[in-house]
Amino acid sequence: MTRKSGQWTRRQFNQALAVAAAWTLLDRRSLATTRPPLAGFAFVAAGGESPLDQRGSIQVFQVAGSRWNTVQALSVAAPAHLELHPHLPLLYAVHAVGLWNSLPRGAVSAYDIHPATGHLTLRVTQPLSLAAIYPRHAALSPDVRHLLVAAEDGGIYNLLPLAPDGSPGPPTAIRKEHGLGEAGDVKTARPRHVVFHPSGTTAFTADVGQESISTFTCERDSIRLEERTCSHAGAGPSQLIHSSSGSCVYALHAGDGSIAVHRLEGLQIAAASQILSSRRPDTARMALHPTGRFLITAGGGNLTTLAIDPRSGSLTAISSMSQQQHPAGIAFTPDGNHLISIQDDSGEISQAPFHAAAGIFDAPQIVARVEAACSVLFRSA
Amino acid sequence: MISTVDKQDPRYPVMRRGKNARFPHADSDAVSRIEVCESVADVTEVLQHTVSAGLRPTVRSGGHCYEDFVVNNPNGVLIDVSLLDHTTAAAGGKSGYQIGPGAVLGVVYTELYRKYNVTVPGGTCYSVAAGGHLSGGGYGLLTRLHGLSVDWITGFDILTVEANGKVIRRHVDRQHEPDLFRALRGSGGGNYGVITNFYFDRLPTAPQTLSTAGVSFPWETMTEEKFVHIVQTYGTYFEGRGQEPDTWPMFTFMGLTHKGPNGRIYISASWHDLDGKNDLSVPNEFLDLFLKCGDASAVDEALLTSHQIPTGRPPEPSPCIAGKHRYTTGPWLDATVGGNGGAGANGTTRGKYKSCYMKKNFTPDELHRIYAQLTRDIPGMNPGGIIAVDSYGGAVNKAHLADETAMPQRASIMKLQYQMYWQNPAEDEARLKYFDELYTDIYSANVDASHAGTPFHNEYYEGCYINYPDADMIRYPFWPELYYGQKGLYPFLQKVKKKYDPNNIFHHGMAIRT
Ligand SMILES: Cc1cc2nc3c(=O)[nH]c(=O)nc-3n(C[C@H](O)[C@H](O)[C@H](O)COP(=O)(O)OP(=O)(O)OC[C@H]3O[C@@H](n4cnc5c(N)ncnc54)[C@H](O)[C@@H]3O)c2cc1C
Fold it and tell me: How confident is the model over A358-376, as a mean pLDDT?
């Protein structure tokens, strides 16, 4: 992958962060607005990143403003990732396990969410295909007919059909990846993250081992490879987000903490048009603001707001807030007024008000603590 | 030429299933297509295409797999190598023989006999193929005399998949990839790649005739005391006299059937005549032992193995006279390849199997449990089935072979195969449950609490046979030790697996796990 002119160098990026940080401090007081207090349910998965003993939980909190009250602590095998059904009160959990019912495979569960209390009730657990071990991510297709699961250690994708009530069925399509490269220098497949393009059946996947982004067409009984875009050496793409218009894909790289902007030509991923390096190569997570105007990255000691150019999709750092801890997951509330982040090391969960007018955060408030938290979602009341 | 059988093909309903009608479990578990290959080049092409398309390949030779390792492959590709079925002399004027994975044992025996007057000490079912059989050990009537089939294998051709997804051909023997060579000698099919050829530098001479006689005992007059006497008589023989080399040409089997009308317990002895004298004193001595157990009857056309248990009219019993057993003697080849190819061979019968290697005679507690299970009434179900007790030991028990092959069981004197057959899919659940309970109960007698329910390695047992895989065993975290022993074989196989199949392309429910 070549770097085009006009891209950010590491030095430029860091300078912009410093400028933006100063600007943020100056203007913050003038941004006070009245906004409805946060209300809804937060779901926090814990124990999905240390799956050997299969322990773990999903903690349910009722949230009112900055008060988080525990509603339920459900014992769940290694939940590494949570997804909400967009229309139904249903939560999906991806179990990052290597054995399910004694067979080498992971699993996915669907839980009914009690609309009034937020309580979860297990509806069904669907084992993945043989050898699909340690799945760590999944995404719902835009028509909510399929769930695409990435089993990282197995190097396998599973496509699970969803019934009209959202229940996942056994995988109808399985794709087994292999390593890439020449003998002696082969990069092992480790599919880490999947995202569907809003147009329908196209999914983009980040493979942290192969160091590539793949484009697949997912139909009922096939996951067909359309294209593979190699990332730069050492990148290790670990998370993808597409812009709200669907014209760009942002790739976060676990290897060096950089973020690449890939324009889409039709549904084809172009080589990166911009690469933003990270000050510290441990940028852990990114989240798209519901307006589609900002991309937030957490890691490298900072919570950084990147403004998205609506035409080109390119990113410009506009503010940054220092954050000492290492985030394991971040998520915006659906109204975009708050960012919830969970900390890997301390298990602290914090809530930072976000001002979409300026793209800046208020100081985060610690609202709860969940040991070994790894994924968080918020559902409005 | 490759023949592709996809879901639209009229052959698909037949070819998507194996010989055990239990599989595939459901339509959604079935393969998307079967690729029938005629040559190694075909297999290479199909395998490469399958791997590149991100699909899972499974491999079939004879289709007799006891569990769902082959035809349960949702939307995957079944590579059928049944047409790679040659049995010939080694190529290039070298001494020795080669056998294709698709060659069924009946044809292997016939070809080797007619062309070279040699044989493989393999199994008893005509239609079992070399591909699975020789990968998982290969045990048969001549095993006490000549060892296991894998003990004779000196090379393999195998297609494996490199880390970058490229299919490569390997010739594997003692000098080339010795680690994979050892792993292929018995750790079971479907683990490392597609075997396209088995090589043997030499093979034992085929016997001239086979003589078989038997005794049987009716369930009508059976008591627990008598049952114990019969079964322990059998075990006592193999603990002692049966391990003396002059007895090794004898294969025996004892069929412990479930109590039922006209039901009988069978014991047969088959003697391989090697020198034209057909001296039957060893099987006579063995069968005479049972005349002290009560109302023994002779059996016309005694059964060679458990797979021939009659489903229709039972054999006609007649009185037994010491030293004068009613032998059926025939040319070895006819006796070996005769019969119907074994039960469960037609793809319409449902079957379930379990196994146990025994190092010692049955204990009273164990027999008490076996008797209780075989006499148990199960409402609404005729359990059928049989516990087949095959003689073992002899040439198998050369200890050094445990280190040279992937078959660690080298100290046993008997090998048990639990078999049950039925037709109606609606009975699956109840039958599998009953069978599991029976086995769990029996192997809770002589086993410590942490391994109860399994014939785990101890002074009595040596685990289970990988060519009789039993998916019930995977609920025990120690299941690999049951099949591969406790002396480091499984970790060795895991290393081999990682090295030669780094992407885990070849996997099934009881494959080597990395
Ligand atoms: C009626 C009957 C009688 C039997 N009698 C005996 C006996 O006397 N002694 C004994 O030891 N066993 C016996 N068996 C067990 C038999 O050895 C196994 O079931 C054997 O694995 C079947 O081999 P197959 O090729 O016919 O089956 P398949 O179903 O084709 O294969 C079995 C396994 O081997 C794998 N495999 C097949 N071909 C290849 C290949 N070319 N490369 C790599 N992997 C491959 C498959 O993927 C599968 O995992 C008997 C089985 C039956 C049904």
Answer: 92
Instruction: Identify the residue whose C-alpha is closest to ligand 1 atom 17.
Output: B133
Residues from A contacting B (CB-CB < 8 Å) are 102-104, 129-131, 154-155, 157, 170-183, 186, 188-189, 221-223, 225
- Residues B226, B109 share a domain: no
CA distances in angstroms from A180 to A231, A256, A337, B41, listed in the order given: 12, 20, 42, 24
Single residue among B58, B80, B102 that ends a domain in this structure:
B80
At a CB cut-off of 8 Å and minimum separation 6, what does B337 contact? B106, B109, B110, B126
Say yes or no: B234 and B309 in one domain: yes
Nearest residue (CA) to ligand 1, atom 39: B131
Q: What is the pLDDT of residue B497?
A: 98
Q: Pick the atom of ligand 1 nearest to B62's CA.
A: 26
In Å, how far is B228's CA from the nearest CA of chain A? 36
Q: How far is CA A125 from CA A109, B6, B225, B418, in A?
A: 4, 31, 50, 33
Residue B511: inside a domain: no
Question: Residue B307 CA: which ligand 1 atom is closest?
Answer: 1
Percent of all residues in chain A with a pLDDT value above 70, rounded to a whole number: 88
The closest CB to that of B75, out of A131, A189, A221, belongs to A221
Query: What predicted TM-score, i.e. pTM, was given to this entire model?
Result: 0.94
- More confident: A85 or A325: A85
Q: φ and ψ at B475, to 5 degrees?
A: -70, -15
Q: Which residues line ligand 1 (CB under 6 A)?
A: B 18, 58-66, 69-70, 81, 101, 123-125, 128-129, 131-133, 135-140, 189-190, 194-195, 307, 342-345, 467, 508
Same domain membership, residue B141 and residue B219: no
Q: What is the ipTM of this complex?
A: 0.92
Residues in chain B whose Cβ is within 8 Å of chain A: 28, 32, 51, 54-56, 74-76, 161-166, 474-475, 502-505, 507-509, 513
Instruction: Using the mean position of ligand 1's atoms as its centre, give its distance from the Cα of residue B140 in Å.
Output: 13
* Cα–ligand 1 centroid distance for B163 (angstroms): 28
How far is Cα B227 from Cα B238, in angstroms, rounded to an integer? 17
As to burial, measured by CB atoms within 10 angstroms (0-12 exposed, 13-18 middle, 19+ buried), residue B437 is middle
Q: The tokens of A70 are what? A: 């525990």
Examine the fold and report which residue of B206, B236, B264 is the final residue of a domain before the chain moves on: B206
Q: Are residues B465 and B327 part of one domain?
A: yes
Q: How far is the CA of B384 from the centre of ligand 1 (A)?
A: 23
How far, in Å, is the centroid of ligand 1 from the Cα of B103? 11
Residues of B in contact with A172 (CB under 8 A): 28, 74-75
Residue A283: pLDDT over 70? no
- Taking the C-alpha atoms of residue B470 and residue B465, their distance in angstroms, rounded to an integer, is 9
Inform me whether the pLDDT recorded for A151 exceeds 70: yes
Q: With respect to residue B51, please indicate whether it lies within any of the assigned structural domains.
A: yes
Let me know whether B226 and B189 are in one domain.
no
Does residue B491 lie within any of the structural domains? no
What pLDDT is attached to residue A323?
A: 74
CA distance B474 to chain A (A): 6
Q: Identify whether A191 is preceded by a cis peptide bond (ω within 30 of 0).
A: no
B199 and B221 co-located in one domain: no
Residue B186 tokens read as 């018995």
Residue B367 sits in a domain whose CATH number is 3.40.462.20
Contact across the interface for B55 and A171, Cβ inside 8 Å: no
Q: Does B501 map to a domain?
A: no
Q: Which two tokens stand for residue B259?
A: 């109590």
Same domain, B173 and B200: yes
Q: Which range of residues forms the domain containing residue B17?
A: 3-80
Q: Domain containing B146 — which CATH number?
A: 3.30.465.10
**Could you say which residues of chain B have pLDDT below 50?**
311, 343-344
State yes or no: pLDDT of A5 exceeds 50: no
Residue B99 shares a structural domain with residue B226: no
Please give the DSSP secondary-structure letter assigned to residue B326.
-
Residue B33 sits in a domain whose CATH number is 3.30.43.10
The reported pLDDT for the residue numbered A9 is 43
